[in-house]
Design a protein that fits this description.
single chain; alpha+beta; 5-stranded mixed beta sheet; two-stranded antiparallel ribbon; 58% helix
């Protein structure tokens, strides 16, 4: 039966409406998928932010606890050290100190010194960073840290390779804090290698270079490396993989805090059996104090 023209037009119009509705549904589905993707991304960012806030709060709590612990321990510790030094002086003056007693007293003094060093770190961890800042040469500071650590590295048959170059790399900051920062990283590398008593060719390679308006400091060792699980926890306060008496677990926390207060950053690359590389970035400045990337 022939289809009349008005019916044909009606069918065509209906088909067009169906096609338009289908196209709208397709477009809506595409837009919905995009929104879902954005929501998932926002959710992940929210989780990361929440984790960072929790971590920041933990650090704040640890800082307050550190200040209280340092205060409670420091006074009796100083008193013990004072009386022990006085006792040692009197016994030595009277020549009543045997070799065994001398070794015992020296052992106690050494232990007190370690406690004192730990208290100093706790105090640094707990106080605000308001120290004087000035232009400093990061190459010179890194070399000073190498020099301070090199004697103990030699005892462990560890070679320290200086590839810092001869150029100056100026940054704005506190010299003492930077020295402590790099010394902490170097000590971690030394301790990791020291545990490998039978390994030959133990070495730490230190490089300083300019990279995109920043100073990049790389400290790389060929030690045992770390698992991904350990690497994810290295910036947690009091987390350590070192044997008892060797690590306090706040060295890298201090490093992270110093860099954060100076606008710097730290990255740690490590694989089990392949060693560890710690990379520090600091904004470089010109002689006039302006950032070089401006």
């Amino acid at each position: 039966k022939p289809v009349e023209s008005h019916e044909l037009l009606s069918r065509v119009a209906a088909m067009l409406r169906v096609r338009n509705i289908y196209q709208m549904l397709r477009n809506s589905e595409h837009a919905l998928q995009e929104k879902l993707g954005e929501l998932e991304q926002a959710y992940e960012q929210l989780k990361e932010t929440q984790t960072e806030l929790i971590h920041t709060e933990k650090l704040a709590v640890m800082g307050r606890m550190a200040a209280e612990i340092a205060h409670e321990i420091n006074n009796p510790l100083a008193s013990i050290r004072l009386h022990l030094d006085d006792l040692q002086y009197k016994l030595e003056a009277d020549e009543k100190l045997s070799d065994d007693a001398t070794r015992a007293i020296n052992f106690i003094i050494s232990g007190l010194s370690r406690i004192g060093d730990f208290i100093s770190r706790l105090q640094f961890f707990s106080r605000k960073s308001d120290e004087k800042r000035e232009q400093v040469d990061l190459v010179a500071i890194v070399r000073e840290a190498i020099m301070l650590m090199s004697k103990s590295a030699v005892k462990e048959n560890i070679g320290v390779v200086d590839k810092c170059g001869h150029d100056k790399h100026l940054v704005m900051g506190n010299q003492n804090q930077f020295q402590q920062l790099f010394l902490n990283i170097l000590i971690n590398a030394r301790d990791a290698l020291a545990d490998l008593e039978h390994k030959k060719g133990k070495r730490i390679v230190v490089k300083v270079a300019r990279e995109k308006g920043a100073v990049k400091v790389s400290i790389k060792d060929n030690g045992p490396g770390m698992s991904a699980e350990v690497r994810d926890r290295i910036f947690e306060p009091f987390f350590t993989t070192k044997s008892e008496g060797k690590g306090t677990g706040i060295g890298l926390v201090i490093v992270q805090r110093i860099l954060g207060s100076h606008g710097g950053s730290i990255e740690v690359e490590s694989r089990e059996g392949k060693g560890t590389e710690v990379v520090v970035h600091m904004p470089e400045v010109c002689d006039d104090g302006e950032n070089t990337d401006r």
